[in-house]
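Predict the 3D structure for this chain.
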Amino acid sequence: MVRIIAGTLVDVGLGNIQPEEIPNIIESKDRTKAGKTLPPQGLYLVEVKYE
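Done. Predicted structure below.
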């Protein structure tokens, strides 16, 4: 899921998806509307916080 979200944010940065579209993409639960899945290399967990 993180890789899909990151890929969607990359598409926003490239201008392929408008930021306003993100809530609709999430609510639609349609994976084809989101950006591409990024590769796992370079993604790592930095911190976990519990309240």
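The longest helix spans residues 2-14.
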